[in-house]
Design goal:
single chain; about 230 residues; alpha/beta; Cobalt-precorrin-4 Transmethylase, domain 1; Methyltransferase, Cobalt-precorrin-4 Transmethylase, Domain 2; about 35% helix
């Protein structure tokens, strides 16, 4: 049998491919982070009668033997709450085990918040580094490692910590051009663009909600820079 890795919309439920709908309709089991969120998507596309298997950190290790056994007899689809499975979620462990067990794995292309945000930032996309969520401890030393990088950096951050992060960016990299993307493909989609000091002033008055995607380039102090990071 086969494991299908199926990206799901990061916001607007229409952001799904016909192929993804077809796979979700045919798969006998759907492995998901949160069955409630997956049910919303399935109901929207009138996909019924599916066996939903919760699979999330930190309990993924206990579920792996059960899921791998299912894959011996059934086609299963792996989804996350939003976007591409295995990026910052335990889906990669299942994919790795499936490959080790010689179970076919088919990955469908689809949406990802950090890729969408890089493109929408206006900064070069030729080379970039995705850092996921920044560490809670040792953040200053962590960021200093990238001071001399000459390509675009993208990471996820929470509204509670964004001011601290921006102050460190200003201290380490200077007043670089910085982009914060939020609510991608949702009703309140928003890109905040500007130099770090300008964003710091703005965010003292503006309260942000939801997960933030942050994009900057250590060598860009404005979009007029000729550095294309080729």
């Amino acid at each position: 049998m086969k494991l299908y890795v199926v990206p799901t919309p990061i916001g607007n439920l229409k952001d799904i491919t016909l192929r993804a709908i077809e796979v979700l309709s045919k798969a006998e089991c759907i492995i998901c982070e949160d069955t409630r969120k997956t049910n919303i998507l399935l109901s929207h596309y009138n996909i019924k009668g599916k066996k939903l298997i919760p699979y999330f950190a930190p309990k993924e290790e206990k579920k792996l033997p059960y899921i791998l056994n299912l894959l011996k007899k059934h086609d299963c689809a792996l989804v996350s709450d939003s976007g591409m499975p295995a990026i910052l979620d335990p889906g990669y462990k299942l994919i790795k085990k499936a490959i080790e067990k010689k179970i076919p794995v088919e990955v469908l292309p689809g949406p990802s918040a950090f890729l969408t945000s890089i493109v929408g930032s206006g900064l070069p996309c030729f080379r970039f580094l995705f850092l996921g969520f920044l560490p809670k401890k040792g953040l200053e030393n962590f960021l200093k490692k990238y001071k001399d990088f000459d390509f675009t950096i993208v990471f996820y951050e929470s509204p509670k910590r964004i001011l601290k992060v921006l102050n460190l960016i200003d201290e380490i990299f200077g007043n670089v051009y910085f982009v914060i993307a939020r609510e991608i493909s949702k009703i309140h989609e928003e890109y905040l663009r500007g130099n770090v000091k300008d964003l710091l002033k703005m965010l003292k008055e503006k309260k942000l909600k939801g997960e933030l995607t942050c994009v900057f380039n250590p060598k860009f102090y404005s979009l007029n820079s000729n550095n294309l990071c080729m």
